[in-house]
Every structure is written in structure tokens, then in C-alpha cells.
Amino acid sequence: MTSVDSGLLRELQADANDAEAVWGELLHRGWSDGLPVIPPTLDRVERMLAGRDPDHVHAVLGAVIGAEQGRPATLAKLAANAVMAGCDPSYFPVVLAAIALIGDTDRGMAYLNSPAAPMLVLNGDVRNELGINCGQEMLSMTTRANATIGRAVRLALMNVGGARVPDLFDVQHGMPGRAGMVFGEYEEESPWEPHSVSVGLAPGQSAVTLFLAVGTMPVNYHQVPQDASELLLILTRCLDYVRGNRIGPSPDSGGGVVVLSPKHARAFSREGWTKQRLEEELTAAVNDHWDVELEAHRIKFELINRGHDPDEPMISQPKPQDPVTVLVAGGLGGWHSLYVPTHSWGVPVTRAI
After folding, report:
1. In whole angstroms, how far apart are CA 185 and each of 82, 259, 328?
2. Residue 351 three-state SS
3. Buried residues in 10-25 as b, exposed as e (16+ CB within 10 A)
4. Beta bridge partners of 182
5. Of the residues 197, 248, 288, 329, which has the fewest C-beta atoms closer than 10 A?
6. pLDDT reading at 8 higher than 50
7. pLDDT tens sequence across 251-292
8. What is the predicted pLDDT for the residue at 47?
9. Domain spans of the chain, in order of start
10. CA-to-CA distance for 36 and 32, rounded, in angstroms?
11. Which of 61, 328, 78, 94 is nearest to 210 (CA)?
12. pTM (2 decimals)?
């Protein structure tokens, strides 16, 4: 392995043993997300690289206005950000898979120039190998792997992709989930096949799926015995968030992700529901109820069609096709599920690790 070029990673001016001084220096350089970081010393970066070529360009990220060519994300730069985030070197393959997915989707711009966050869902053996939390408090930053993998991706998007104020636009309020939204699907407690298998990967294959999340919405259904039709009604009402953000001429909402708790998943399964049937019902609930509701939008279509050839079809609002994804994760003790709205700019993508 060639040693990490110090030109890629500027030497720290502060004493690496003085945590506050290092943090202050990195804050001054704009390298931190506001939280304390592990100093990215050369020896730590080389341990993270584990023999990989530091100069290899793993992905191209373009997050800011005027960065049409994108920015090269070398393995050295990604390793430095993983170190700062607090990752163990064993987490680095997941970070690399996530960055590659983001780089493949419009050079990552959709994952930064919106009030949203990359949400990473892990499937397969990697969950147990790395200790990925799939159950209680999975999104509450209580597990090192979940917290630091997501943070490493966030820091890389800031420091390599340039996702920082004032270069970003359309992020008036931001999104706290940008610090990291990472969890594993609770395959052992699910009555259905895992998401990675649903999209074509082999059972047990380690994989990560990338969603563009805009928040979380609790779904509460405590009735005993559980009734699938009642739970479906509650879920479809929660999906009204999507319809609300589609009223305007530039719809922002995708189909979203329904994260069923194991108890709620079993309630559907006991009554013969498959995951595919549930996803189809929820997708229909999101996409079948739509119309042009804003007067300004109606006038826009009227003006477009005013000089239209009468022998050709009139231009109208297309029917949305956004799918709803169903996952199983969360604690075993309660009757709560989770709806995760997603941004229309991000299409779920899965990659083997």
C-alpha cells in the first residue's frame, strides 16, 4: 500500500492528544458537523484503509451549485471522514457502499439539496457481524455502528461533496436525521422475506439500501386482538402526508417507507397478508387519490393546452407511480410502527456489500 499523501490530509496543527484543541481546529476548518470528532491522524486513516489504495476515486459527489463536474471522493478522504465520525475499520465497507450509491444518484445532489437525509437500511449477515441495531431504539444513536456509519456518510458529503452553508439551497430548516439514519431490518422477527431478497439478492447476502428520508411519523395501534383492516386504515391515513406535499406543481414527496414493528407485521401475516400485498395496497393509497387542486396549477395546464393540436392528447397531470416500501424493524414490546416520508428526488436503491 502506498502511504496516505499528507497533501490529501493536512497535518493537524493541534496536539492530537488534546481533544478540545483538535476539535476547535477542525471546527475552524469546517470539517466538523458541530460534534466532537476523532482526530484523523495518518496512522488512524491508514488503519481505516486496511490496505486499500488511498488515491483511488471511489465515487464522484456533486452537492453544490456550480459543481456540475462533481468532486472526486478518494478512499483516503472517505477514510479520514470515517475516522472523524468514530467508525471502527470494520464499518468502512458499509460506508463505501453507501457513498457509492449516493454517487450513482445524480452525483449525490438529490441527497443534499433538499431537507432530507440519506437513510441506510442494512440486510443480511453484516447486521450481526457489525452489531447493527435492528430493534429497540434503532434510530436513537444508542449503537456505535448505527450512529457512526451514518455520521461518516454525513461528514463525507460535507467535506468532500461540499454540502455546507451557504452553498446549499432549498434547505431552509435542515433535517436532524442528516447526522445519521441507519438501522438493520429485523429479519429474525419478520414473517416475510427481507427487503434485499425482495429486490433480487440472495438470502443472507449483506446489503445496504439507500432511501431519501424527510422525517419520521409514529404509527400507534394498541388494540387487542390486532385487526389487519384497522391497522391498514391507520397506515393509509398516515400516508396523507404524501398527498399534502403533492398539491403544488412541483411534488416533493415520494411513496415513503413503512417500518412495521414485529408485532404489527405478525398481525398482518396471521390474516394471510404477504408483504407484496401490503405494499400494493399502500402504494395504491398513495397514488390513486390525486388531482390538480391548486387553481394556479389548473390555469398552468389550461395555458399549455390552449394552442395544442386538437388531434393530439391534451397535456395533464400524470398519475404518480411512487412505490411504498414495507420493512420490519423495531422493538418487540410495543404496538408502534413508523412511517418514514421520503423525498421524490430519491429513488430507493440497493447494493450488495
Report:
1. 23, 9, 6
2. strand
3. eebebeeeeeeebbeb
4. 120
5. 288
6. no
7. 667 789 999 999 999 999 999 999 999 999 999 888 876 555
8. 96
9. 19-352
10. 7
11. 94
12. 0.86
